[in-house]
ABC transporter ATP-binding protein (Vagococcus carniphilus), 258 residues
Amino acid sequence: MSLLKVNNLTKNFGGLAAVSNVNLTLETNELVGLIGPNGAGKTTLFNLLTGVYEPSEGDVLLTTEKEEERLNGIKPFKIANKGLSRTFQNIRLFKELSVLDNVLIAMTGKQQVGVLTSLLRLPSFYTSEKKIKEKAYELLAIFDLSEKKDSKAKNLSYGEQRRLEIVRALATEPKILFLDEPAAGMNPQETAELTELIKRIQKEFDLTILLIEHDMSLVMDVCERIYVLEYGQLIAEGKPEEIKTNERVIKAYLGGEL
Ligand SMILES: Nc1ncnc2c1ncn2[C@@H]1O[C@H](COP(=O)(O)OP(=O)(O)OP(=O)(O)O)[C@@H](O)[C@H]1O
């Protein structure tokens, strides 16, 4: 079943069509890659899917239990509440806060108690708070960050900060996770570990993932399907082995790695 459908999506910045007439789908539980040379429009497409930008034309449709819901023009926090979560290419953590607090803040809104219960600190408040902390610890453990829970985010290594970003995105319990260059700045060992982590969380949390990445070893390893953008337009779609040998894609990457 298509969980997300993108129909004829276009985003113009002045005279530049950063994303032009793009059609794509994400099936439930798929792990899909989005690749393309620098400036191809990948991040702009993510921004359109997560409400940061409004499309100039076209639709973003989310299939819910009852219907197809149009996401165009909906604010990012509302889109997050509908189960779409993301990381950013430039890491966006609360650098002065602890690792644990960074995760707990992302979970704000998950506390299942009313205002009065919170104000009066009734027993159910503590039960809910305990559950939220347990969830945060569980995620930090998966991403090998348990021992760093009290460190300030700014004191983590670059690779750890990238992992914490993913933990924060997962803390909102998404259906669809958008990862924007999760391996950027990582060394080969960290990238290999991240590759396994991405596969693991997809299964463990029943996720549908769309992933932008320049590291082709990671993309070819984890993705079931890949979309390729060039100058804002989709130039190819297919399985990793099809993309690797696609002449148009090779041409787009000429001088780069594929
Ligand atoms: N807010 C903006 N205003 C004007 N132009 C923009 C804006 N955001 C992106 N662009 C332009 O749109 C095009 C696509 O940019 P985008 O960042 O989406 O590409 P990308 O594929 O993510 O690139 P990279 O791989 O380098 O991150 C570029 O030409 C960029 O300069």
Observations:
- The chain has ten helices and ten strands.
